[in-house]
């Protein structure tokens, strides 16, 4: 029974090595990108089931909630950085016939800036949670933050899916372009919600910030 109570934490921790495998396999492309997509879906589902299992086994704890939130950040941020480092962000340039010309350096720089905004927000909020945890309080995710996380996961999943379909399933150029436009929209919507939810979270819990405890 004691082992069963650790299952949620094991599922949570399993998402960490998945980050490396998904990033490498996506970069290798072809059948590996399809494997990366499958592993990403499984890893994302563990984020749903670890909490459900913890509630079913009455194994919910402050440690579990804190670690689940921290691993979620590592999972998402690690994949975003990996996508940027391996040129898997939607930054290609197209001609009038829908053919790929080359990577757009301006779009790549802008996408990297978006990733930096997400990184800054997540590290800041995680730091705030650690400060609160030091005083014996656990700050859980709020509604807008959960929507933001959902959009980030959907955007990353689409990025991996696009890589799999263009290099393994041979997606047509026209559909590639349409799909990339959708991914770009999802990505920047996620960035916007990341910034807005971060600002809202800081304002709501400003009592934990030095000099803003009143």
Task: Write a compact overview of the structure shown.
The chain has 214 residues and is mainly alpha-helical. The chain has helices spanning 2-28, 31-56, 62-85, 105-134, 143-167, 173-204, and strands at residues 92-94, 100-103. The chain has a single domain, classed as Up-down Bundle (Four Helix Bundle (Hemerythrin (Met), subunit A)), CATH 1.20.120.
List the helices and strands and how they pair.
Elements: H1 2-28, H2 31-56, H3 62-85, E1 92-94, E2 100-103, H4 105-134, H5 143-167, H6 173-204
Explain what the structure shows.
With 214 residues, the chain is mostly helical. The chain has helices at residues 2-28, 31-56, 62-85, 105-134, 143-167, 173-204; strands at residues 92-94, 100-103. The protein has a single domain, classed as CDP-alcohol phosphotransferase transmembrane (TM) domain (Four Helix Bundle (Hemerythrin (Met), subunit A), Up-down Bundle), CATH 1.20.120. It is 77% helix and 3% strand. It has a two-stranded antiparallel sheet. Strand 1 and strand 2 (100-103) form a beta hairpin. It is globular. The termini are far apart.
């Amino acid at each position: 029974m004691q082992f069963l109570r650790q299952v949620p934490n094991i599922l949570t921790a399993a998402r960490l090595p998945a980050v490396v495998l998904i990033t490498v396999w996506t970069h290798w492309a072809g059948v590996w990108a399809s494997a990366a997509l499958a592993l990403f879906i499984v890893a994302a589902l563990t984020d749903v089931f670890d909490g459900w299992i913890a509630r079913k086994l009455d194994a919910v704890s402050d440690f579990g909630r804190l670690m689940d939130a921290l691993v979620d950040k590592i999972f998402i941020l690690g994949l975003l950085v990996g996508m940027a480092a391996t040129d898997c962000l939607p930054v290609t340039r197209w001609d009038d016939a829908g053919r790929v010309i080359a990577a757009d350096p301006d779009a790549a720089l802008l996408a990297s800036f978006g990733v930096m905004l997400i990184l800054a927000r997540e590290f800041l909020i995680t730091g705030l949670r650690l400060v609160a945890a030091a005083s014996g309080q656990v700050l859980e995710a709020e509604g807008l933050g959960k929507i933001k996380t959902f959009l980030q996961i959907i955007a990353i999943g689409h990025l991996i899916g696009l890589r799999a379909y263009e290099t393994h399933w041979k997606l047509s150029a026209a559909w590639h372009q349409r799909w990339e436009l959708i991914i770009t929209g999802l990505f920047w919507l996620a960035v916007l919600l990341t910034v807005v939810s971060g600002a809202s979270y800081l304002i709501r819990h400003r009592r934990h910030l030095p000099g803003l405890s009143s």
